[in-house]
Amino acid sequence: MEEKKPGFIRRNFRRLMTLLSTLRIVVTNLLFLVVLGVLFLAFSGGEIPTIPGKGALVLNIQGSLVDQKNYVDPLVRIMGESDPSQYETLLQDVIDAIDYGREDERITTLVLSLDDMMYGGIAKMQELAPALQRFRDSGKKIIAVGDNYLQDQYWLAAQADEIYINPNGAVLIDGYGLYRNYFKQALEKLHIDFHVFRVGEYKSAMEPYIRNDMSTEAKQANQVWLGALWDEYVVGVAERRSFSKADLNQYINQFDQRLADYQGNTSSAAMAAGLIDGIKTRDEINRYLVDVVGAVDEDGNYQGIGFERYLWVKNIELSEAAESARVGVIVAAGNIVDGEQAPGAIGGDTLASLIREARRDATIRAVVLRIDSGGGSAFASEIIRQELLLLKAEGKPLVVSMGGMAASGGYWIAADADEIWALPSTLTGSIGIFGAFPTLDKSLAALGITTDGVGTTNMAGAMRIDRPLQPIAARSIQSILERGYAQFITIVAEGRELPKSEVEGLAKGRVWSGKDAQRLGLVDQLGTLDQAIASAAALAELDAYEKQLIDIPLTPQEQFLRELTGEVELRGLMLAGGIDTRFLKQAQQWLAPFKGALSFANSMNDPQGLYLHCSNCMAP
After folding, report:
1. Which of 377, 408, 513, 603 is labelled catalytic?
2. Which domains does the chain have, with CATH numbers?
3. Which one Pfam family would you cite for this protein (predicted)?
């Protein structure tokens, strides 16, 4: 039977509704863009930003230096309240701005204004240092100014030609330490049994749940890598300030005596120790910079432009034609989590899809995987590794660049690379595996709640948290862990072309600095991300190439909003509601151990409950 066609009126009514729906979408999007345009003009003072004809590039880093920003809805960022402790600055943006400024005749000076920088991390700052050296080599001066200098702020300031501090300011350096809270007694009082399974005597991630203190093995291992990182910090300062490592350590270890010698005047104590070059009020610093920079704005301040605004305008000015051959750069930052994840975490499926995209793109001739992760899900780590093997099978060189850390699961996905690059202070290794399973039967019993029933097999109900952990389940978990550890050893041995016996000696959950890892064969070269990219291009035999960041695509509206919020972010928001940023910096340091632990706990979704994670790597 022939299907009856809709009548004339019905057909045209449908067409009319489709047209009205299309018009509604178009008009809504136009209004959306108009509103954003108005917001942009309001925030930018009604003018399109320009680079002054003569002035300073101001390195006004805010929040934390990161390889990849956590995803925040840009509209929420515009309309919501700003939390300075959550602000993030892309490391590559800072490096690009410095390199552009070095060759820009309009930029006469680089000013390091670091009061709003809350966390840098020694590895990321070491990656930034060569860019600062290139700027100095151009003959242009770098000057650091600040009210106070915390530990990370001071390391960057030390890379400047001159450092100035407020008369009531201080240089506060306290070294690196790893102190954790231990919950065994608390869990006992709550009648919670925390069953921990691990392979590797130095795999101490779960010690806080089964001990009241740090084990001797963990203390020994942690002291090694903490000492290695602290040595990198001290050397980086001492070489620039022309005093010995012993001088800096003595200043810190005898800080009370130093202050007593100068009647509690922290700025004078820093000056006498050679940590700074001068003590100036804000007005004195401004008048000094007016002379150095050689230009003044309409308000009488030295002429300068913040690096984010400078980079935004500079990218508009530069419209170079793209080369046909490209080196793809994929960033893997955060905890490794199963499934799809937004930036800020490494989703096994998400990262695998980006690697697959690079593999299928004929213009991508080599790939650099930038890792900044302490690991996470064992299953997700293996999904990522399998996709990387497919990339290599296509004949595309794979180079890994390690950021602050690439440990445990982060090393699992790195081991098969053609080359591994790290910073001297990168934390890596932590070759081990663990599982954890809490049971609450005793807690419930204390409340008068019991569990009983029947099952058809020995495994039925064996993994219920309201029952004691059954021996068959415990033995099964340990067996799976031991197989995972053996797999980890094999992956590293084959990927690094090392004997298994040698890898076993380097494993057991131990954490290594990048410098030590290179000496031991776990890392090939020490250097920056840019050096790793150049090496990947050389492996692909590319003479001319461009870098291509491969990341999760944004919708046009999200992209526009991101550009907008990147341009109009107001420094004044750092003081919104009378918040003292110095308190926020200190509070962030206090809460860092809890934040890292909670972040990992929230991401524990491995299908088998198995984790390749370096909890200790969250410290410095």
Report:
1. 408
2. 326-618 (3.90.226.10)
3. Peptidase_S49
